[in-house]
Amino acid sequence: MFNIYTKEIEWGGRTLKLETGQIARQADGAVLATYGDTVVLCTAVGARSVKPGQDFFPLTVNYQEKTYAAGKIPGGFFKREARPSEKETLVSRLIDRPLRPLFADGYLNETQVICTVVSHDLENDPDIIAMIGASAALTISGLPFLGPIGGCRVGYKDGEYLLNPLMPDYPEMDLDLVLAGTHEGVLMVESEAQELSEEVMLGAVAFGHEQMMPVINAIIELAEECAKDPREIAPIDPAVAVVKEKLIAGGILDKFADAYGEQEKLQRQVNIAAVKAAALESLEGDEVSIAGGLFKKLEAQVVRGSILKTSMRIDGRNTKQVRPIVAEVGKLPLTHGSALFTRGETQALVTSTLGTGQDEQIIDQLDGSYREHFLLHYNFPPYSVGEAGFLRGPGRREIGHGKLAWRAIRPLLPTKEDFPYTMRVVSEITESNGSSSMATVCGASLALMDAGVPLGSPVAGIAMGLIKEGDDFAVLSDILGDEDHLGDMDFKVAGTVNGVTALQMDIKITSITQEIMKVALEQAHEGRQHILGEMSKALTSGREGVSEHAPRITTFSIPKEKIREVIGTGGKVIREITEETGAKIDIDDDGTIKVAAVDQEAGDAAVNWIKSIVAEPEVGVVYDGKVVRCVDFGAFVNFMGARDGLVHISELEDRRVGKVTEVVNEGDMVKVKCIGVERGGKVKLSMKRVNQETGEDLEANAEAE
């Protein structure tokens, strides 16, 4: 019934198995990829025809994690997987980016790749397995995919590179780098690093590219056994060449060159639109729709050719220049920290907010739940590019750009023990003409320092581009939006004066060489140092102390056995403290207490209240108390937090008292002296001994006078 084909290799100390022919047989390509005991089902399907009038390639990649893969049942009311998590979105992008450039020109059929995690051993991260499985599924599908690609994760610890480290080892590594590529070169890189040098980063990429070769060979061998016949791509309409010649004959290349001579973005867009509109007027019928698909290629020809010939770019810069930078902090009066970072026509208004442990984000994943105390959110409203659009929730792009900036900043953050705050950074992109994610890195660094967060060093980021024609290439520093759209590479590098903290690279051609990558890293290093210098004009380090608008957190410890007393039955006591003082209180299982309040007086009141609850009364010490109950044999006085003690009727006054209420009543404020603590914890108090001492002091003072 089944024609099963399997390929196994030993890779990184574990067995990688690719299997096809039994599951999902109606998909164009389906591969069950297994590494350790983590299993991902990867499928690829391409539509049989192109939608009329479509002039782009609609590829969708979906990575999804099923909770049953780790023996869990989903939370929530519906008890089923819902919208994609942040990790699922990020891994979907991770797989999409190296696959997209490898589909043949002219293939515009709607194509979908789905990677489903069906078993997770909590050691082998499914993202790499999904990427490899997706590559294998496409390679055997018969779709015009010019792969396969391979992928791997590279760690770095104690001066050595690690291939596909296990998930529990991630926190101990100085580098977490994921890359994908073909036999010829690298297509995609994503990484977080602990201020590593460019040489170490380049070495990691070279190491990873070498280690992925067995995987690529295994996929090729599997395809040789079971790949479907290649799909035919519809031949290019001869009319395309006719329309192209007609446009060129009409002088469109020179007109595009003049339009791109305008350095201001919005006016340049107006000029380009006018050139296109004039060109369309000279065409008839189907020629108009054909021309729409040719314009970008003609624009690219003009822009790319000019850069390679003259080394001068659209806005008049040379290949290494960074746009003018203006950095300001404290832009918003009531936020805990704020910064406005402007680089050319790209601008980010970034804020930082400090909260308590109650503000931490609880993240539930297949490998377990954890709390995150650093959040970074990136927003890209339509007005930032001069457009009117519908405001939606964050999409894949916003989540991806925010995570890149998060990776860039996180290695420099203080530990929770040294800085017990939850930190949220929000980047509002108010203008955009390329490199908005790197503007977010710069603005986030400044906003955090403005709030008083003691960053290890300021962090800056720069986006590099590439124009490559044959053997000629030019690496561009701080790319514009047009240079991104019409170029061959988007290579983002973030870091400090000491080294790289994050690196992300996407290639739009089949691959790049190590030589190009080395040039890009060196040029990015120069650009980053320049940007850090400009940022230092606004702020060189974190302010002394946190913002006056941020909560003050006081941390102290109490005995574990006292936690119950502070919380109270059903949380009654801690709720009362919070309501009375206005402070926020976090209690850890080890007895660590964090009290946060914007008002110092409120914070002190909460701290003193808690300390009074856990404190033990000392014999001979005088306390202020409140009479809470009168009985025949004495009065009960609340004198230490929730603790009461008994003043026996014989200890009320230095005389015989017939009735307790002759001396005190409920609600009276009194001074009491602790005269004993019984084995069961009952406290004996005295009022008369306080009075005796007070009288003795008065007599002594009188004699002294």
From TrEMBL:
Enzyme Commission designation: 2.7.7.8
CC cofactor: Mg(2+)
Membrane-crossing residue ranges in chain numbering: none
Give the UniProt subcellular location, in the record's own words.
Answer: Cytoplasm
Q: Which gene encodes it?
A: pnp
Taxonomic lineage: Bacteria, Pseudomonadati, Pseudomonadota, Alphaproteobacteria, Rhodospirillales
One Pfam family in the UniProt entry: PNPase
* Sequence similarity: Belongs to the polyribonucleotide nucleotidyltransferase family.
Q: What does this protein do?
A: Involved in mRNA degradation. Catalyzes the phosphorolysis of single-stranded polyribonucleotides processively in the 3'- to 5'-direction.
Record flagged with keyword Magnesium: yes
Does the keyword NAD feature in the UniProt annotation?
Answer: no
- SMART domains recorded: KH, S1
Catalytic reactions of this protein: RNA(n+1) + phosphate = RNA(n) + a ribonucleoside 5'-diphosphate
Q: Which residues form the S1 motif domain?
A: 620-688
Query: Known InterPro entries for this protein?
Result: ExoRNase_PH_dom1, ExoRNase_PH_dom2, ExoRNase_PH_dom2_sf, KH_dom, KH_dom_type_1, KH_dom_type_1_sf, NA-bd_OB-fold, PNPase
Q: Which organism is it from?
A: Kiloniella antarctica
Where's it mainly located? Answer: cytoplasm
Q: What is this protein called?
A: Polyribonucleotide nucleotidyltransferase
Keywords attached to this Swiss-Prot or TrEMBL record, sorted alphabetically, are: Cytoplasm, Magnesium, Metal-binding, Nucleotidyltransferase, RNA-binding, Transferase
- Chain positions recorded as Mg(2+) binding sites: 484, 490
What GO terms are given for molecular function? polyribonucleotide nucleotidyltransferase activity
